[in-house]
Every structure is written in structure tokens, then in C-alpha cells.
Amino acid sequence: MAVRARSGITDDVVERTRRCEHVIIYGPPGAGKLTVAQVLAERYGMRLLDNHLSVDPALRLFEFGTPEFVDLVERMRVDLLQAAARAGLDVVATFVYAHVVDDDHLATLIAASADAGAHVTLVQLLPSNEALDVRVQAPSRVGTTKITDPDVLHRLQVEFDLRTPARSEDLVIDNTALPAADVAQLIADQVGLGPDAGATREDVGGECQAAE
Predict the structure, then answer these.
(1) I need a surface site. Which of 129, 147, 149, 204 has the fewest CB within 10 A?
(2) pLDDT in tens, 156-198
(3) Distance CA 101, CA 93 (A)
(4) List of domains in the chain
(5) What is the distance, to the nearest Å, from the Cα of residue 129 to the centroid of all Cα atoms in its chain?
């Protein structure tokens, strides 16, 4: 097996490297995005960038939906994704997507990761509306800035299309009755994640790079 003299990395080590993976999970409020993302982070060493990591700080300054709020949220998300990709970190991110309305924002997020070297996979979680009504009232949401009132959710569903996938090639999962661990496994299989995926890149220097 040949050795790369300048880097000190053998070919068999290089073969085990791959581009870092960025998984963007989207879906309506209460779809279980964060729960699934937490499983992915725990099992596969991914870094978690959940929706409210950017939303909550922005709400401290601006009203939800104002131009200033929207701009700040996008800039924070872009900076986080770019920094992660440049550092070679696998990331799972979550956000609520409204068809057409959020297309430009989503394209910006994809570009932030992809242009910095990450491979991006989009996953839509799409449980039934009845399941969403139950989940938004979960005790774990109390005291957060998340939607907890089914009536508010219903108004959003009337005003925005929260169920149409962003792209035809996205992985769409009906997780009405599917445990979060099973959903995470479906995503891992789609992306090609292994339990030691994060450790492999750290061992060789942590840069996003295509397998050679």
C-alpha cells in the first residue's frame, strides 16, 4: 500500500474518509424533527443545529416574521453551516419549511453547506395532522418558543403549505407511528452513516474531502 510522504496518510486511511454529511430535516411544527435529530447526533457523532438555535436569539431582538428577524435567522444558520462544513463536521439541522415561501431560504442553506464542501441530504418528516395536534401539546414543549396550541398550528396550515416536499428527490418519512430511532436509522441508511463516521474524519485531520 503506497504512502503519501508529504501528508503521512496511507491510501487505506484516505479510502475511509468521505465528504462530511449535512442532513437537513424539515417538517411541520410537532413533526418530531428535534427528537430524530438528537438520535442521529447521539448515534453517529453528528453536531446538532436545531431550528430554535437561531430563532430564539433572534426573538430577543426582533418580532417573529419581521424582515430584521428573517435576515438575522438566515445569517446565523448560514454561518453555522459554513463553519461546520469547513471544519469537516457532520451536521443534522432542523427547520419548519413552507412550500414556495421558504424555497429561497432553503436554497441558501443548501449552498452554505455544499459550497463549503459538505454533501447535503434533505429529509421531510410528515406525520398525520392528527399526530401533529397531539405532539404540539407535549409537556416538553411547554416553556419554549415552540407552538403548543393546535389552533395556532391549524392557522399556519391554512396560511402555508407545510406538507409538500421541497424537492422531488427528498427522503419523505411518514413518522406517525414510527419511533424516532427507526426514523433515524432510515436516514442513516439513506445517507450512508456509520456509527464511527465522525471519528474517522477527526483521525485524519477533520477536513471535508471526497473519498479517493
Answers:
(1) 149
(2) 999 999 999 999 999 999 999 999 999 999 999 999 987 655 5
(3) 19
(4) 20-196 (3.40.50.300)
(5) 22
Q: Which residues pair with 49 in a beta bridge?
A: 93
Q: Please state, in angstroms and as integers, the Cα–Cα distance from residue 101 to each residue in 26, 62, 159, 184, following that order.
A: 14, 20, 11, 27
Helix (H) or strand (E) holding 22, with range, is strand 21-26
Is pLDDT above 90 for 145? no
Q: Compute the distance between CA of residue 28 and CA of residue 83 in angstroms, rounded to an integer.
A: 27
Helix (H/G/I), strand (E/B), else coil: 125: strand
Edge-first strand order for the sheet with 47-49 is 47-49, 91-95, 21-26, 119-125, 171-173
pTM over 0.90: no
